[in-house]
């Protein structure tokens, strides 16, 4: 399923964040350091106390507000889905309890996520979608991303699409489909 067309920029330079500081705090706490909800609350409480005398406030009141603002981002809006899973019963009653527990797995449809990424003009020209084989100077294969994986390479070869074979640093073999 193709992603919906982009409807232009979000109103406001930092929207849905109130400011650049609020955006950077959210990025640091949620993305870069992945601080726990309780530690976010403690940090924001201390922040609020430290600026209370000058009539200012922390960028967020608590982790719930931080998460709500992040969840309100309209870009790449792919719904979350949940599935439950459990290990198969092995009939042994001495197995640990976690083996009998049902677990929730939350995920977003990877096809839609990737389609949205490829449709995002911010990524235009930022990555090469051509499969390749990367060999170091000793001739050993280096695995660095999905396009250097066997499945991408063999699918490219089997369909006859253009492929790049990196023989060694700076030297490439380009394989073009036979058009004759």
Q: How does this structure look, described?
A:
There is one protein chain. With 180 residues, the chain is α+β, with helices and mostly antiparallel strands. It folds into three domains: 10-74, no CATH class; 75-126, no CATH class; 132-175, no CATH class. 32% of the residues lie in helices and 16% in strands. It has five helices and six strands. It has helices spanning 20-32, 37-51, 63-71, 110-119, 150-159, and strands at residues 80-85, 103-108, 132-135, 141-142, 163-168, 171-175. The strands form two sheets. Strands 4-3-5-6 form a four-stranded mixed β-sheet, with helices on one face. A two-stranded antiparallel ribbon has the order 1-2. The radius of gyration is 24 Å and the shape is extended. Mean pLDDT is 78; it is low at 176-180.
The coarse overall form would be extended
The secondary-structure element order is: HHHEEHEEHEE
Distance between the termini: 34 Å
Mean pLDDT: 78
Strand runs, count: 6
Oligomer: single chain
> Low-confidence parts lasting 5 or more residues at pLDDT below 50?
176-180
Rg over C-alpha atoms, rounded to the nearest angstrom: 24 Å
What count of domains describes the coordinates?
3
Q: Pairing-aware structural class of the strands and helices?
A: alpha+beta
How are the strands of the biggest sheet laid out side by side?
A: 4-3-5-6
Number of helices: 5
Helix % is 25-40%
Q: What kind of sheet is the major sheet?
A: 4 strands, mixed
């Amino acid at each position: 399923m193709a992603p919906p067309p982009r409807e232009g920029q979000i109103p406001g330079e930092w929207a849905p964040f109130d400011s650049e500081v609020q955006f950077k705090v959210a990025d640091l706490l949620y993305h870069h350091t992945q601080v726990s909800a309780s530690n976010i609350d403690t940090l924001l409480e201390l922040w609020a106390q430290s600026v209370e005398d000058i009539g200012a406030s922390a960028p967020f009141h608590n982790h719930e507000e931080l998460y709500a603002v992040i969840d309100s981002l309209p870009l790449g809006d792919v719904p979350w889905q949940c599935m439950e899973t459990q290990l198969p019963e092995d009939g042994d009653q001495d197995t640990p309890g976690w083996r009998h527990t049902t677990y929730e797995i939350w995920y977003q449809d990877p096809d839609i996520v990737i389609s949205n990424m490829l449709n995002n003009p911010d990524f235009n020209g930022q990555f090469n979608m051509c499969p390749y084989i990367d060999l170091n100077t000793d001739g050993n294969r280096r695995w660095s991303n999905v396009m250097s994986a066997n499945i991408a390479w063999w699918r490219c070869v089997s369909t006859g699409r253009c492929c790049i074979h990196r023989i060694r640093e700076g030297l490439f073999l380009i394989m073009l489909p036979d058009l004759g």
